Amino acid sequence: MPEDKVLQRFIEIEVLVGLIGGLSAIGLFLAFAWLPSFKAILYALVMCIGILVGMEIPLVMRIFNAQEQAFHELVSRVLTFDYLGALAVSLVFPLVLAPLLGLARSAVLFGLLNVMVAGWTAWHFYPKIDRADNRLKINSLSDTNLDKHKPNLSQSSSDGSDGFNSLGSLGSLGSLDRLNSLDKVTSYQAHQVITEDAKHKQQAHRFARSESIRHGLIVRILLATALLLAGLLFADRLVGLSEQKLFNAPVIFATNSPYQRLIVTERHGHLQLFLNGNLQFSTRDEHRYHEALVHPMMQTLSDSTRASKPKLEVLILGGGDGMAAREVLKYEAVAHITLVDLDKKMTDFFADTPRFQALNANSLNDPKVTIVNADAYKWLESSEAHFDAIIVNLPDPSQYSLAKLYSVPMYHLLRQHLNAEGLAVVQSTSPYYAPRSFWSINKTLQAAHFKTTPYHAYVPSFGEWGFIIASVNQPFVAPSRYEQPMTFLSPSVSREMFTFAPDMQPIAVEPNTLDKQMLVHYYMQDWSDE
Questions:
Q1: What is the pTM of this model?
Q2: 3-state DSSP call for residue 515?
Q3: Which residue of 33, 132, 292, 360 pairs with 457 in a disulfide if CB–CB is 3.0 to 4.6 A?
Q4: Is there a contact between 134 and 291 (Cβ–Cβ < 8 Å)?
Q5: What's the angle, vertex CA 356, arms to CA 354 and CA 359, rounded to 5?
């Protein structure tokens, strides 16, 4: 590539990176909702942006090289700024921008930054020539050259007349030779004027062409900026359209928290909560899930309370919607509930929104409930409290950060906080659709020296869903009666929950440790089969 094109190409690539990268998130949201070939579009976008970004560093090096810098200084400067920029983005994006703006608008903002860099470069570094000043300069130079090389005609005329007079009077041929020499000098001077004038015209043409290219670059930069600003303005609406299509129900509430995207949909009077696109509950059947999660353990503990331990201390990990707390509060034996949920926006939403206050019986505002917004793993590490009942109602182990909460070290911490006669229950995905995951969680609890009792319940929104009760000393025995009136659970249903059909029997799997993280692989493998 010619050196005079390097800066132009850098500016053009910077504009493309800003435009394609900035609108990529919105495009992918829409593609995921409406197009069947989402993966192909994703890979194509990643490849395109990767190639464009990869072309930037060589161009920057050539720009610096034109300034005759030492090669080692050139490389160190370019790579230093590249690494520092990557570090800043890797910190700002997950900690600040994504929680505040969301994925789509954050991407558009970064695109705008790229386009602004291109605009600043085009304005300050690309050749700028004012046409009127340039024309004046060229004309001035041409006039100067003409004056410089213009022969002294008066002197020539005087000399010529003297020559002719001498020729006429003396008949000498010397004056004729002098006249011929004068003609040659005049011709050479005229040629010089023409040549230099041509050079100035060529220079003027180059200046005009540079100015034209610069104007074209600025127009493209302004168009890209306008498109990105429109994307920033309509990002939420466009993402909302894709979510509306994806969830197949009207979205009545959507927001971003520092940790996840919360979406509530409503159809035929039934509400559904989605976290990062994954269904957490539907009001149509959430009672099945939460009754199965809470009551087998709580009924057993309530029956076993004695004069020495008349009241129960309960810990809920996750469950920021307040539904599990609602079921626990039905037992008079409960003295206090500590609810640990990472997302404050989640707990505030379900504590303050009237429709969800009615749904969770205002449990999050109950004086018996203390809400702690913290990471469950870190909170267990720092707390010295002990509990009679622990309910682990965390999201599925779909990624490594979540699978850590289903690991052997996590369950060792859980065991340290559980009283000797206490019980813990863990939501454990589906024993039918995700058998590797389910039985791996069971194996992980056993590796942490728990005695385990798996069971399952049918929840229409999820299908067959699994739970595991863990005890320290005595194996758990399912209750034969339930004192609380319930919509789903009964003694006969309870007996069926603790029985596994032949197609849901245990399989050979490994426990989930922090170094291997087998559970994530099992989970992805299980659900990719569906």
A1: 0.72
A2: coil
A3: 292
A4: no
A5: 115
